TrEMBL record:
Domain ER-bound oxygenase mpaB/mpaB'/Rubber oxygenase catalytic: 154-347
Domain of life: Bacteria
InterPro entries according to UniProt: Lcp-like, MPAB/Lcp_cat_dom
Lineage: Bacteria, Pseudomonadati, Bacteroidota, Flavobacteriia, Flavobacteriales
Coiled coil segments of this chain: none
Species this protein is from: Chryseobacterium soldanellicola
Descriptive protein name: ER-bound oxygenase mpaB/mpaB'/Rubber oxygenase catalytic domain-containing protein
Any one GO molecular function term: oxidoreductase activity
Length: 398
């Protein structure tokens, strides 16, 4: 089927111009020193219709030919023990593990370690950034959300979805997590195959998929944007909340997510090395994305109301207060126009909590050592993950 070439349809739209001329996009340009233009648009546009074919073939050869739990066990065995050229396994499995077991020439484990330390050192600010800027901000891009709607993510519920995102993020950002066969490496391979499974299921069962406008489900360009969320947008959020970071930590964060992206099958030329590149890449991608639609609003409110549904906090007043704090952070971190489009509720004194957080971070940075902050942050993040997994594994959150 011949593709209609992708165009930056929304480059003159109000939401696009507002974002890049006076909103968070302008802040990202100032933050990164990016030089944005449409000169390289054609280099990226074709990836709107590009997918991880290797991952798709593995799903067809393993998951579609066995019971799901049997296929999962088989894949876990390959991940943990490796695959060699002489193993009697499907050719697609050999291709996948030939790629993921090959350490790229550019990989620097010391840089990855610095990136992981920044993630841990930022303690609960990391989790606030992921939730109230990266995730909820991503819902403003209507086409990006379509795979979530097609796979009925709203029925699964925000508690389960947040738990899965947290489980992935925590496990790829610990010390040595991305060494071959380690836990973060395992999470990356499994996530890659979940993406392929979802994509093939959407193409088979979701008859209303609009490939021309939405791209292929979970396409490589959308994947690039998602992982820029974990690097560039995450870093910008930490800065907004009063966190400081060294040049090495910043480089390390981008290096960590570049390698995670590589393991996930995102083409290497889509993986930015630094905040300048990431901003320039992100600028091009946003030009093919319309603003929030009704699905965006439903997803945003599902995430906001997660605090009320989640039984981790025992009392209702605690849950309501947590929801209030997340709403305050969302207004503080995102553009007002984005918040209005997503119909984020107006609340009183919404700047008080974020401003207090900034003040506490400055004091904390001055009086507590970096090593102590890394240790404390790791412990706090692992505790939150443990709480979420306890709720989702022992309840009806499916």
């Amino acid at each position: 089927m011949e593709r209609i070439s992708v165009q930056p349809h929304f480059k003159n739209a109000k939401h696009f111009k507002d974002f890049w001329q006076k909103g968070n996009g302008k802040q990202l340009i100032d933050f990164s020193g990016a030089e944005v233009s449409f000169n390289d648009f054609e280099k990226f546009a074709s990836y709107f219709y590009h997918v991880d074919e290797i991952g798709d073939e593995v799903v067809k050869d393993v998951y579609f030919k066995k019971k799901f739990h049997e296929a999962s066990r088989e894949i876990e065995n390959y991940i943990r023990n490796g695959v060699s050229e002489n193993d009697i396994v499907p050719e697609s499995v050999k291709k996948l593990f030939t790629q993921t077991q090959k350490i790229p020439d550019w990989l620097d484990y010391n840089l990855i370690r610095s990136g992981a330390e920044l993630c841990m050192r930022s303690n609960l600010d990391s989790l606030i950034s992921l939730r109230d800027y990266c995730l909820i901000g991503g819902y403003d891009y209507a086409y990006l959300n379509k795979p979530l709607i097609a796979t009925e993510a709203l029925k699964k519920g925000a508690v389960k979805r947040l738990s899965e995102t947290l489980d992935f993020w925590v496990n790829v950002t610990r010390y040595d997590a991305l060494k071959i066969h380690a836990k973060g490496y395992e999470f990356a391979i499994k996530t890659r195959l979940i993406h392929s499974y979802a994509r093939l299921s959407i193409k088979k069962h979701y008859k209303d998929w609009d490939t021309e406008n939405w791209g292929e489900p979970i396409n490589s360009w959308d994947m690039m944007a998602t992982y820029i969320g974990f690097s560039l947008v995450f870093l910008h959020s930490l800065q907004k909340l009063g966190n400081t970071f060294s040049i090495e930590e910043e480089q390390g964060l981008f290096h960590l997510w570049k390698y995670v992206g590589y393991l996930l099958g995102i083409p290497e030329n889509l993986l930015p090395n630094d905040k300048k590149q990431a901003t320039e890449y992100f600028h091009l991608w946003t030009s093919v994305q319309p603003p929030s639609d009704k699905d965006s609003v439903l997803l945003a409110h599902s995430l906001l109301n997660e605090s009320l549904e989640n039984p981790i906090l025992k009392f209702n007043f605690q849950r309501k207060n947590l929801r209030y704090l997340h709403i305050c952070c969302t207004w503080f971190l995102l553009d007002d126009e984005v918040c209005k489009r997503l119909q984020i509720p107006e609340v009183a004194n919404r700047k008080l909590f974020p401003k207090t957080k900034i003040l506490i971070n400055k004091i904390y940075d001055t009086f507590v050592s970096r090593e102590a902050r890394i240790k404390k942050g790791n412990k706090s993040q692992m505790k939150v993950l443990e709480d979420y997994l306890g709720v989702t594994k022992n309840s009806n959150f499916h």
